[in-house]
Each structure stands twice: as structure tokens, then as C-alpha cells.
Amino acid sequence: MQLDIGNALDSAATPGVSTDALDRLDDAVADAHETIAAGMSNARFGYASLNLPETTSATGIERAVDPIDADAVLTVGIGGSALGAKTITAALGEANHYLLDNVDPEATNRLLDALDFDSTAINVVSKSGTTAETLANFLVVRDAYEAAGVDWTERTVVTTGESGPLADLAAEEELPKLAVPDGVPGRFSALSAVGLVAPAILGYDIEAVLDGGREARDSLTGSIDDCPAYAYGALAVALERRGVHTNAFMPYAEALEPFAEWFAQLWAESLGKDGQGQTPARALGATDQHSQLQLYRAGRHDTMVTLVHPTARDDREIPAVDVEGLAYLGDATLGDLLDAEFEATEASLAAADKPSIRVELDRVDERGIGDLLVSFEAACIMAGELMGVETFTQPAVEWGKNAARGLLGGEETAEAAAVRNKHNYLIE
Description:
Elements: E1 2-4, H1 19-41, H2 52-55, H3 58-65, E2 72-76, H4 80-91, E3 97-100, H5 105-114, E4 120-126, H6 132-147, E5 156-160, H7 165-173, E6 177-179, H8 193-201, H9 206-218, H10 228-241, E7 246-251, H11 257-271, E8 279-282, H12 293-298, E9 303-310, H13 334-351, E10 356-361, H14 366-387, H15 395-409, H16 414-420
Parallel strand pairs: 2-3, 2-4, 4-5, 5-6, 7-8, 7-9, 9-10
Antiparallel strand pairs: 1-10
């Protein structure tokens, strides 16, 4: 991954970061890097995430899924238990990977009605093995397979902790079971079995994904001048302190649209604490130039735009046509047009005095997505260190889980009571 921060400096944007501030940031990054490196070395909770490219066994995952013959995969999970897998397969152009990451009954019915159960593997992921949404969806999926006369046990892989209801079920049914790595929060777990089972079933080179992650991990140094990942995290924090409270993440590749979703969880769940954090906004270039760019260019000076640009891609020529006003398109390709749209968006933001950061990668492939995942995880961890927050916890999420469990099970938890006692002011 490469980074261009020129349009986030105070000479180009308001607010922006001065070169003097960059020097001060560099000192802070050096100190934070020592903390991160020590955490990685000791496999401390959260920091162990950056060790996954080394500790994850691609061979072990491939061996576990080898008996499963499938043309499609249905991942049953939620949050980090689903987004990492979808991010990887989408980046690789895979259309036959489906998610059940919500409990909307109408959406679930539509998905199950469209699935070919005979050719679809089931990938169930829950770190605790107690996540209500995941367990409920899995029970529904299992029932649908049985109703169709398809043996779900022959095509199901479970990724979970050492104990819990899901682990017990896997043991009872003799299902292939892979471990959620210790010390790794779900949103940081993409380069483990959590994110790699689905692409492995579909035949992708998951070792190459890990190779890309290793390259990103090995690039981490104590200076923002030599480390794009840390530079991104540090600049985002510096801008947030100057009033930039929204981070619009805008890849110029449809294959990276799920990556923007993954980034949104990573950034929000990790850094939204103690009255701090940036609100992530998801956008897609060039599509959202026609829907969101108006706000980012002409709205308040409270938003940075992260522009993600692959420098190489497969391409398609635009057919020549002898029509005035259209002929110029016949000398170009769709890739040329997309690149021009990218450059235009970046220039448009700069002309409006709005901060943006350019992120470039060589290509969206196995190595490329592994690099991006680890780079942004490292960026997020660096941001958390500089902000002084507990990056790897998610107490607000746990509050909601406890409330839902209490309401569904009739358990009078404090969270469930708070829901029942909410203030009402109805307008009908």
C-alpha cells in the first residue's frame, strides 16, 4: 500500500496538518510503535491480530475444508465474523459467496429460496458460540437443508471458540471445526479461519492472502515517513483533533465495496470511545460522485475523504462511435474513464479546500487484499494508541447484545430493563 497525504496538509486543506505537526506526530508514532511491537511480541490481546499472517495455517484451513465439494458458500455470522470473509471473496471477484449477517426474516426467506442447497457449503462463524443472531440463523439454515432433503452435515464448517453451544454442536455432529484465534477481536480476525474458510472452499490461494498480510506487517516501522499504515492512522487522528469527525471511505473499485463496510466496523467499533472517534461513511467511486460528493465538497469542513485506487486492473475498451459529442470516448477504456473520475474527485476536493488522503495498491488480488487488511488494522491500532482509547473492546456492542438476550429470553437484565423503561412520546 502506498499513501499520498499531500491533500491533507494545511497548505492544501482546511483543516489540514502542518509539517511541524507532522514532526511532532512522528515522535508520537515512534513511541506508539514500541508499544505495538511489544504487544505483538508478547501476543497481547488485540495486538496479536497483527501476528495472524504468521500464525494462521493456510494448510490447516485447506485440509479442514478439503472434503467439502461446493460451488458456493453461505457464511452465517455477524459483524467481524462475516465481513472479513465477504471482503476477501468480493475483492477476488467471487459472486457465489452469500451472507446471513442479519435476522430480517424476509431477507432470509429470499436468500434461502434462491440457494441451491446441493452445491452450497455452510460456513458458520461465532467466536463465543453464543451469538444469538448467528445461532438463530444457523438453526433456520439447518432446517431449510433438512426440508430440502440435503444433508447439511456433509457441507458445514464451524469456526468458533474452544467451548460453547456451537463447539458442542460441532463435536456432536462430527463437523470440521476451526478455532477463532486467542487474543484477536472479531473485527481484526479476517486473516484467520474466520475470514479464510470461505475463500478456501471456493478454491482461492489463501496463502497468497497471508503473504500480502506478511508484507504489510513487515513494513511497520516507527516513522510515518516510512510506514503508510501508521501515517494513515496518525493523520486521521490529527485531522479528527482539528474537527474532522467524518471519514468518507471511497474505493475506486467495486470489488472493494465490502472492504469499505469492513473498514466502517473497524474504525467505528475500535475508536468510537470516550467522546472521540470519526464516523465512517461508505462511498463508491465513481458511483457516489453523483450522490455524495456534493456534500463532501460543498458541505461543512468536518469530513476527510479516503480515496482508494488500484493502479492496475483488467480493462475493457469503449466501442468507437461516429456521433458528435461521443467520439472522444472511443479512444479510451472504462479503466481510463474510472481513473479520470478518480483524479477529478481528488482535484475537486483539493479545489474546495477539503482534506483527502490517497491510498494506492498495485492490484486487487490475493496479495493486495491481504496487504490492505493488515495495513488498515495497523492504522487503526496506531490511531487508538494516539487517542488513548481501549482499541480492542466494544462495550456499547456488548450492551446491545445483553439487552437483546434479556428481551428474547425473558431475563430481567439491567440492559433489558433500560429498554422497557425507555421514554415514549408518540406522534400518530
